[in-house]
């Protein structure tokens, strides 16, 4: 078997076999197939696409290129949740303990943030003492004991994906749905989940800017899950403005805690309930979504989800008192008010621009080795559809000092707000759901 023959076949629109894709991925991982041949293959896939069976074969080949996590010692059906990335997305901090309080084990590996999107691990590390690294035995024991553990990605999960993504990034082949889908799902499958719920973002703050493209990506990932024996569902959610009001690590933890107290923003609460309902159904703890939703709302009302959060924090070395007193979290010493540049109604908020603005304050990473400041960030005072008056505060910057850098970010936040004369309505938060049965728009 030769790489050139596989490239030729895909270039001409042929379907690749499991053996061909395994040969290609394993050979590339071992350094036997050079970058220039993998670049040619990726470009052929970019133009010719892949069918669902091919994409599943590719996903498994990448998953098998490194470590596979064995979660079989954990009792019950393990359901993982993955977001394609957004601004203000702190759902894992809420969903983990919420779903665990309903009896579904959550054994989750999460990543750090890069660019305009925040990482769950960075957010959790803003809680003093919280450990994001656990030995495998301790990780499994914690899930069996209290039902939830969230740690940083350990071992060498899907190394072929890391190598291939770096190549795609410099060869203009990132925007290929089969390659994106296999990249996401290879890591989820290697992480050992029995079932997977996906939160696919769409809009200005998302990787996929249109609903049609987001649905195509979701459909490809659900098809992969189905092909490899993992029950998978995907919700398409709006990212045309940030989720909730907080952007930045400790600020987002504070908002997550407010949500677990039942006092969170409506959009954040709604999305968490929707995603968690699917997880509870796939985890076998509810017969249908309506039953799951009722159970989840009761766990929030009764305080059981909050109690699970405190147990989770304590088990990983943090101070559970943060669940009742978020003032224990890091706080920036200076608040800078961002005034509305004109009167009117908020028509749009460029979520990606606000994510980049928070990164410039120090809340995110411009490069992988950047050091982040857990205390800084942005809280919004106005969102789409609300009326504002010129000079009224539309956002607060949480900063170390009010200097030139803070003022530059202030102007960037102002520019991210589109304010018009006519009243406006925000886009619906939940746009569609994709399952093995197909796509349903709400």
From TrEMBL:
It is an enzyme of class 2 (transferase). Keywords: Glycosyltransferase, Transferase. It comes from the Bacteria. Homodimer. Belongs to the thymidine/pyrimidine-nucleoside phosphorylase family. It catalyses: uridine + phosphate = alpha-D-ribose 1-phosphate + uracil; thymidine + phosphate = 2-deoxy-alpha-D-ribose 1-phosphate + thymine; 2'-deoxyuridine + phosphate = 2-deoxy-alpha-D-ribose 1-phosphate + uracil. SMART domains: PYNP_C. GO terms for molecular function: pyrimidine-nucleoside phosphorylase activity. InterPro entries: Glycosyl_Trfase_fam3, Glycosyl_Trfase_fam3_N_dom, Glycosyl_Trfase_fam3_N_dom_sf, Nuc_phospho_transferase, PYNP-like_C_sf, PYNP_C, Pyrmidine_PPas_bac/euk, Pyrmidine_PPase_CS. Its cofactor is K(+). This is Pyrimidine-nucleoside phosphorylase. Transmembrane segments: none annotated. Its EC number is 2.4.2.2. Residues 345-420 form the Pyrimidine nucleoside phosphorylase C-terminal domain.
